[in-house]
Design goal:
Helix content is about 55%, strand content about 10%. With about 600 residues, the chain is an alpha+beta fold. It folds into 4 domains: about 220 residues, no CATH class; about 70 residues, no CATH class; about 55 residues, no CATH class; about 220 residues, no CATH class. The chain is globular, with a radius of gyration of 28 Å. The termini are far apart.
């Protein structure tokens, strides 16, 4: 059948317009996503402010919360949390609708070629997000319910624990005093636990900044589900077009570390080309917080080679280097199961904790599932582009490890993947009790000899902390002379210039120069001058930048997640005192550390 040239030209122009519109729609999606994340953040911040105010309103004349007010206080706190839940759910529904709307925008200018109702697509896409049952058996409403139950438990328990602890300490102190004995130091410390300010601050942290906090979980749901609504609407509109044969899984520009998304974007499971899926088969989103997108593929874009090159996910995985297999599967035991032919296609995305129980029920000896060794991410596996190769002895050879092996293996594996060193002296890495007031510490003698590294038990970013303290060790003992070379050594001059020019360091210096208080929304608050001064010392700036450098260069998942957590905590604080750098700010700092690594002989070009 022949088609008139003018019709061919029109169809070609419409396809090109859809492609251009797709790129524009992704930018629009990012704006929608950020707008709703900002609004959700404001909801949680206002709820935190209200909760803290309510807690303080129950204080007695000594600014202490009595045991008698606990029941009424928890009732008021739960009522405010229910208001938060309702407002957040309304906001999320608006975000889903707007996300779906951006998904159909590329096709609006070509409506003649798309026989559908965009309103119907919007509604069906939002309903799809609500009705979808995930691999864990949960719907969106279940996830929100879990977040809200967690909020009530975390905040309520924080309030109850502090009040009861303070009350018990007060009773114990009275008992000691009645006997004419001094109050022990540990009881004196606990006496302030029921102080209204202390309880308010603890409850606010439980809601927004503590480990597993409801605020971060809510933002993850917003990101994931708004993106899901967008992509579902986009896919629905796309397949109304007669020439669309599939949608391509497109990695986000911010996809800095390999994971299962790399598999979905690379394998040719349906013979339509790498990363292309027929209607209803796109694996998006591959995981929570997934910012990858999809784009249309027209039938004339699929080649004969694409159709002949069909391969299933297990075949694709077996062809990859062990490092990529590890990145996709996420657990070395799963990689061992792949190597031994135990892993099934349906189990690729199954968490190991779930898969492990299935294997045990099948009589499989999971303890002896041992994979072949894999290169650390970012070395020779090609997962993270590198300009240099490691030179010198491994840093791990200089450390006598007495902390949990999994923490040490992750941090030291990342460091050894990025650089070597000269011959460092051997020092121990030990665990500090959880009650210490620091996450980690590097100790040395007054004479300048290194002693040990301590990592606090129970810290929530231990891998990044270990890299931070090793940064101190290298600064102090791995370069020429004794003492911290980052402070004044000429080799560090370009690095010092880069950190001095960063927005984060400039902000800290501005806070320090402002005197003892800083202006924040609602008034002024005191500035912890000693802490800010400490953050601005070059040896501390070096250790923080070194840890971030290792996380980024190695692609270590735990360290990158910990880096993101620290940045979120600092940005959510009433007075932001950034410990780490944004992606944009860190570009020049990372380049200068690259150069320094070569200059020190720890990497080779």
């Amino acid at each position: 059948m022949s088609v008139p040239a003018d019709q061919v030209n029109v169809r070609t122009a419409r396809k090109a317009a859809i492609k251009r519109g797709t790129r524009k729609a992704v930018a629009g999606l990012r704006n929608v996503e950020q707008d709703y994340l900002d609004q959700a953040t404001e909801l949680y911040r206002q709820a935190r402010h209200d909760l803290e105010a309510a807690i303080r309103s129950y204080a007695d004349s000594e600014n202490t919360l009595r045991l008698q007010v606990l029941q009424d206080l928890r009732g008021q706190v739960n009522a405010r949390l229910r208001d938060l839940e309702s407002s957040r759910n309304d906001l999320l529904n608006q975000g889903l609708a707007n996300g779906a709307e951006t998904g159909t925008e590329p096709f609006r200018g070509t409506a003649a070629a798309v026989a559908t109702s965009f309103t119907r697509i919007h509604d069906e896409s939002v309903q799809f997000v609500h009705n979808l049952v995930g691999a864990d058996g949960l719907q969106l409403s279940d996830r929100l319910w879990r977040i809200d139950r967690g909020a009530r438990d975390l905040v309520g328990n924080a309030i109850e624990r502090n009040i009861i602890l303070g009350h018990s300490a007060s009773m114990a102190a009275q008992d000691f005093l009645s006997r004419g004995e001094p109050v022990p130091a540990d009881i004196q410390v606990k006496l302030g636990a029921a102080g209204a300010d202390k309880v308010a601050r603890t409850a606010g942290q439980a809601l927004m900044t503590g480990e597993g906090n409801p605020y971060s979980n809510a933002l993850r749901v917003f990101r994931t589900e708004i993106n899901r609504a967008h992509n579902k609407a986009y896919e629905s509109a796309a397949f109304e077009h007669p020439d669309v044969i599939g949608v391509r899984f497109v990695l986000s520009p911010n996809h800095s570390r390999p994971d299962i998304c790399d598999m979905y974007a690379s394998m040719n499971e349906y013979g339509l080309g790498p990363g292309v899926y027929p209607q209803g088969q796109s694996p998006y989103p591959a995981h929570p917080n997934d910012n990858c997108t999809i784009e249309v593929v027209f039938s004339d874009e699929v080649s004969g080679e694409d159709r002949q090159g069909k391969e299933d996910p297990l075949t694709w995985l077996k062809k990859q280097a062990p490092g990529m297999q590890q990145a996709v599967l996420g657990a070395s035991k799963k990689r061992a199961a792949l190597e031994k032919g135990l892993l099934r296609k349906s189990q690729i995305a199954t968490p190991w904790r779930v898969l492990k129980q299935r294997y045990i029920r099948q009589g499989i000896d999971v303890e002896n599932l041992v994979p072949t060794p894999a290169e650390p991410l970012g070395v020779d596996s090609g997962l993270v582009p590198r300009a240099y190769t490691v030179s010198g002895a491994q840093v791990s050879e200089a450390l006598d490890i007495h902390i949990p092996k999994d923490v040490a293996d992750r941090a030291l594996g990342a460091i050894d993947a990025v650089h070597g060193d000269g011959r460092l002296p051997m020092i121990p890495v030990q665990t500090s009790p959880a009650r210490t007031n620091y996450y980690g510490a590097f100790f040395h003698t007054r004479a300048g000899d290194p002693l040990r590294i301590n990592i606090t038990a129970g810290g929530n970013h231990r891998e990044l902390t270990l890299a931070h303290e090793i940064g101190h060790f290298l600064d102090h003992s791995g370069t020429s002379g004794k003492g911290f070379n980052s402070i004044r050594h000429a080799d560090f001059e370009d690095w010092r210039r880069a950190v001095d020019n960063s927005a984060e360091v400039a902000h800290l210096r501005a806070v320090l120069s402002g005197g003892g208080s800083a202006e924040v929304p609602g008034g002024h608050i005191p500035v912890p001058m000693a802490y800010v001064d400490y953050l601005l010392t070059y040896e501390e700036i070096w250790a923080r930048s070194y840890a971030q450098y290792i996380a980024k260069k190695s692609g270590n998942r735990q360290m990158l997640d910990q880096l993101d957590m620290i940045r979120r905590q600092d940005s959510d604080a009433k007075l932001s005192l950034p410990r780490q750098w944004s992606e944009e700010s860190f570009v020049n700092i990372s380049k200068e550390i690259d150069k320094l690594m070569v200059k020190l002989g720890w990497q080779k070009k």
